[in-house]
Amino acid sequence: LSRLLPSLSAQQAVVTGGRVVRIQGRDTLGVAAAKVILHRVARAAQGPIDSTTAGRRGEFLFRFHPDTTAVYLLSSGYAGIEYFSSPVHLNPVRPDTGLWLIVSDTSSRAPISVASRHIVVSKPGKDGTRPTLEIVVLLNAGTDTRVAGDSSHPSWSGRLPPGVLNVQVGQGDVSAEAFAFRHDSVLLFAPVAPGEKQLLYTY
Description:
Layout: E1 14-24, E2 27-30, E3 35-41, E4 46-53, E5 59-64, E6 71-78, E7 81-84, E8 96-103, E9 106-107, E10 113-121, E11 132-140, E12 145-146, E13 156-159, E14 168-169, E15 179-182, E16 185-188, E17 195-202
Parallel strand pairs: 1-8, 9-12
Antiparallel strand pairs: 1-2, 1-5, 3-4, 3-6, 6-7, 10-11, 11-17, 13-16, 14-17, 15-16
């Protein structure tokens, strides 16, 4: 089918845009002159393909010809943190021009809570160990992104069951490089933006 439809990677131009905004209390403020980057994520390659500078109210607009086999994201940096949008809609008939790319101030005291924690324990193997999957959803209910006070302290930490072995990070909302596992604790060194963030690890 791909041989019969080579034009799938050169569709009609898509228009997408919106505003870069920062939530302050109950107000939403546009971030003037914010740099906005359009990213393409495909199997063969991924990375930025275009960028623009937002206007005085944080407004921005992109026009591009999408590859329908790829996913497109928007990002903008603020206070040293890069914030990403949800995937961009690629329907040229209905332009996705009302996106809000939300950024925030940072704080090492922004409260983080555990919204949910699920532990799935498998049947024991021949050696008696039980493969286990743990899913933790963190909630930042405030308006500031939680960051670590310094590089030696995590932005969040949680407990692991005693005696766990071979801890590995799964495909959650945080890359494996942001985790550390020490004794009976899991340490997260990534910033936690407002909203929910899912962590997944096995042992």
